[in-house]
Amino acid sequence: MRSTESATLPASRLRLRRTTVLAGVMLAALALAAAPRAQAPQTPGGSGAVPLRPALIPWPSSVAMTAGERFAITKDTAIEVTPGQPDLRRVAAMIADLLRPALDATLAIRDAGATPAPGSIRLDIAPGRQATDEGYELAVAADGIRITAKTPAGVFYGAQTLRQLLPWSVELRGPRPFAVFVPAARITDTPRFGWRGAMLDVARHFFGPADLKRYIDLIALYKMNRLHLHLTDDQGWRIQIRSWPKLTSIGGRTQVKGGPGGFYTKKDYADIVAYARDRFITVVPEIEMPSHCNAALASYPQLNCDGKAPALYTGIDVGFSNFCFDKPLTYKFLDDVIRELAAMTPGPWLHIGGDEVKKMTPEQYAAFMERAQDIVIKHGKVPVGWDEMIHATLRPSTVVQYWRPDASLAPPAGTKLILSPANRVYLDMKYNASTVLGLDWAGKVDVEVPYAWDPATHVNVDESQILGVEAPIWSETPANIRDIEFLLFPRMPAVAEAAWTAQSARAWDDFRSRLGAQAPRWSALGINAFWSPKIDWQR
Ligand code: TNX
Q1: Nearest to 242 by CA among 333, 340, 330
Q2: Could you tell me the sign of the dihedral formed by the alpha carbons of 424, 430, 433, 435, in that order?
Q3: What are phi and psi of 72, to 5 degrees?
Q4: Which ligand 1 atom is the nearest neighbour of the CA of 233?
Q5: Residues in a beta bridge with 65
């Protein structure tokens, strides 16, 4: 089946009621063969077209569309929320913000009564209804929209699904009033994995708070829920630490190719953490050690074994720097840094790197990483480390992030894992030979590569050990947020679906047609996407 085939239901058909239940890809494929496909571009006025197979990413657990029925959102539609839930009010305000340009009005938000008022968008917390914290139900009918979940996070994910059911033109900014029609649907959904992460390396190139907020907005569209910040590396130290101020005043001064660099003050960081939290994303900060630390060594001569500070570094080699592992001051330094970072990080995890160490024996490395884990635990956090760390004795809570394509060495039983295989989900790899941005040491990674794999098969462990999937962007080559967008789109939505959707409900041909339908949305959002030749883009 060609994914460009599309059809609009004629208006006369709208009077017919036909319910197409699409639960999973196999059923969906049958339905696609039997029914006219309706990924019709929707006109700002709302042509009345009803998408029978909505272009939802990640694909939900169960989708039933009711042809011929739709809800019209107008200026008078109210958003009702379960009383006493400030997080729900915030989700309601985001929905109102999204719809403001389309309606040229701000929808009223009010506490819900016992029964939904007809014609409203209702956001409900119903503790018993959903088995999982992040699951939700979304019902759209002629008389209203209802999102029900156990937690505000679930309602937020329901709202992201609702957003994708709206005509793409709602994404255009600037008032342009039109009626917003939403096709009738009944969707129930829950994620496969609880860890759906994106990592940004802010050390090689620095990305300021406004860029990070844009990044957060973009990953939230696809229900990602972890933002891993690689805050330190050879080229830069990007987080203010009061007890060691030169880390940023010297170590934050430059970046790859010698640009001005930069760093986050504690206030910037708190603001980013709060912005992420409002979108149900937990920040996971990383302090790299024992290698990848030239910026720290350049800031403080006393951290070096010979007491001499190296120059700041603006190249892209790895493995040449190392903390002086037999100096007591090194551990006092790490204790101070982790104490301060833990105090400003509400999430439970703190990443301590541990990769690409070339200047220690295996015994020295293991002893160092054991001490580092203990410092993190002492300050109340769960240590996370790159996969080399399985060569140290892992503390019971420690999480291992697999990044090397060769994952033949499994961690001890019970250890929790995050999967970031470079040859699958490193979004700093080039797409193909024609794309200039990116590295290619792990191969070319066009959009089918992060999609077409089963995360459960990457490492030989029980699936219950796998927390989920995370896509890193290392910033040796991307230098600004436009570059980051180019690396994220279209691959990040593919990673998001690999992390969210059950394996049995995923198929590349089906995904690529839903992905192709995202194009007008991304254009309306001003996203600098790579229009991969692997996809038939609806533009
Ligand atoms: C490997 S992944 C690294 C990074 C580089 C990246 C470039 C990992 C744990 N280490 O230092 O930036 O490759 O793709």
Answers
A1: 340
A2: positive
A3: -100, 120
A4: 11
A5: 20, 185
The residue nearest atom 11 of ligand 1, judged by CA position, is 318
Nearest-atom number in ligand 1 for the CA of 403 is 2
Backbone angles phi, psi at 121, to 5 degrees: -100, 115
Per-residue pLDDT of the chain (539 residues; tens, 9 = 90+): 233 222 233 333 223 233 333 333 333 333 333 333 333 333 333 444 555 789 999 999 999 999 999 999 999 999 999 999 999 999 999 999 999 999 999 999 999 998 878 899 999 999 877 789 999 999 999 999 999 999 999 999 999 999 999 999 999 988 888 789 999 999 999 999 999 999 999 999 999 999 999 999 999 999 999 999 999 999 999 999 999 999 999 999 999 999 999 999 999 999 999 999 999 999 999 999 999 999 999 999 999 999 999 999 999 999 999 999 999 999 999 999 999 999 999 999 999 999 999 999 999 999 999 999 999 999 999 999 999 999 999 999 999 999 999 999 999 999 999 999 999 999 999 999 999 999 999 999 999 999 999 999 999 999 999 999 999 999 999 999 999 999 999 999 999 999 999 999 999 999 999 999 999 999 999 999 999 999 999 98
CA gyration radius, the chain: 24
Crossing angle of the two packed helices 152-165 and 86-103, in degrees rounded to 10: 10
Residue 191 CA to ligand 1 centre (angstroms)? 28
Question: Omega into 10 within 30° of 0, i.e. cis?
Answer: no
